[in-house]
Design goal:
single chain; 2,3-Dihydroxybiphenyl 1,2-Dioxygenase, domain 1; 5-stranded mixed sheet; 1 helix; 10 strands
Length: 112
């Protein structure tokens, strides 16, 4: 399993036949519970965040540039959180490889 280092910590990627399928990381704080968190790859993070807000969702973390790409955490109108992200060029693509960032990543964040 390959491990990738980012500015927020390390991230282990699970693959099948060489195709990245999921990832796992340690929660970044002692009060953050183990959880699954969905990241949806988008072409433009800022436009995706504006659309979430226009449709009644909330912006939990404003779009931010990271070593993994431009990412923002948002919530739908019912409060379910997820992230939208324009992946960095060096980030492994999850699922079928395409020329556009239309994959999905659902990492498990757990201490065990």
């Amino acid at each position: 399993m390959p491990e990738v280092a980012y500015d927020t910590g390390s991230y282990t990627i699970f693959t099948m036949d060489g195709v990245p399928l999921a990832g796992v990381a340690v929660p970044r704080g002692p009060r953050i519970p183990n959880h699954w968190h969905a990241y949806f790859a988008v072409v433009d993070t800022d436009k995706a965040v504006a659309l979430v807000a226009a449709l009644g969702g909330r912006v939990l973390i404003e779009p931010t540039d990271t070593s993994a790409g431009r990412v923002s955490r948002v919530a739908d109108p019912q409060g379910a959180a997820f992230s939208v992200m324009r992946p960095a060029a060096n980030l492994p693509r999850f699922g079928p490889t395409t020329t556009q960032p239309d994959g999905q990543d659902h990492p498990l964040t757990t201490r065990r």
